[in-house]
Amino acid sequence: MERKQPTPLDDFLFDLRGYLVLKNAVEPDLLDDLNHAFDNFPELAPGQWWGNAQRRDYTDETGFELHNCVEAGEPFERLVDHPSWISLVTHFAGEEKCYVEGVFIDECIASIRTSGGHHPVHSGGFQGAVRGAYQYKNGVFRCGQVNIILALTDVREGDGATMVVPGSHKSNFPHPLAGDYAAGDRMDTLEGAVPLYLEKGDALLFVDGLMHGGSSRTNPGERRVLIYRYGPSWARTRFNYEYSQELLDRLTPERRQILQPVAPARPPVAQPVP
Ligand SMILES: O=C(O)CCC(=O)C(=O)O
Q1: Cα separation of 196 and 17, whole Å?
Q2: 24, 28, 92, 262: which could form a disulfide with 141 (CB 3.0–4.6 Å)?
Q3: Could you tell me the residue ranges of all domains in the chain?
């Protein structure tokens, strides 16, 4: 697959709306491998570890969320620098044209949502964290976090589509009707929010500072998505997961550079503490 480069239209739409939809981002073989991996996830209780990945649902209603899923098998590794988006996320969040150029992965999550599940509305420009902030200045993007949500199943009406409030990454006011994340308020009918329907294999790219969430799934069956969050090379993962040496050792140099942009600085042999 050819590496997709950002176009002037991508820049215009990303700046205007805060998101892009990447059609047919992932090839059928890889989708099959990822779905096969999902089929074989074990039953995990919230908080339970599976190797170096951990089930850690964001809320009681988001459903199964396997964090650090890049440790869950080789197909997940192929997404790290996937040609459909790696140049885009690097362009938006990778500190282009400066001494710390490059991206790292802040979080990577395998998510399964069933009927009744949803992800409450959150983010938006108003008092947003620097970690997810949108910025374009002096001819370069300086976003704190750009997310990829890859659909492994079709996500249509009733399937629990991700919803966004287009343009809200720049908003200077709180949304007066947005509700409360901690209370688990649903965003299904939020004024200004639109669902982004995806076909299996499409990916949604958006700046985390965009107001967003997951609408209620009302259909039977599963919504399966992968969420990979990219940030600047110098940042640290939200929950401080550490990668296993086995994973780091087998990655291509390009992938290792993204998971570990800066190797730990240690003396060659342990030195006595003076
Ligand atoms: O599940 C979704 O569609 C949205 C996910 C989300 O809001 C997030 O991970 O921040």
Answers
A1: 12
A2: 92
A3: 8-259
Model confidence pLDDT, tens digit, residues 34-50: 999 999 999 999 999 99
Q: Which atom of ligand 1 is nearest to the CA of 123?
A: 10
Report whether residue 233 contacts ligand 1, using a CB cutoff of 6 Å: no
Are residues 255 and 81 in contact, defined by beta-carbon separation less than 8 angstroms?
Answer: yes
Determine if ligand 1 sits within 6 Å of the CB of residue 227. yes
CB 216 near ligand 1, within 6 Å: no
Phi, then psi, of 22 in degrees rounded to 5:
-100, 105
For residue 6, how far is the Cα from the chain centroid? 18
Give CA separation, 87 vs 98, 203, 257, in Å.
16, 14, 14
Beta carbon of 224 within 6 Å of any ligand 1 atom = no
pTM for the complete prediction?
0.96
Q: Spell 195-214 as b/e; 16+ CB within 10 A means b.
A: bbbbebbbbbbbbbbbbbbb
Alpha helices (H) along 78-184: 86-93
The tokens describing 180, both together, are: 């409360």
Using most ligand atoms within 8 A of CB, pick from 227, 229, 238 the residue to mutate for ligand 1.
Answer: 227
- Centre of ligand 1 to C-alpha 30, Å, is 22
Residue 103: its H or E element = strand 103-113
Identify the DSSP state of 15. H
- Domain 8-259 class? mainly beta
d(CA 68, CA 77): 11
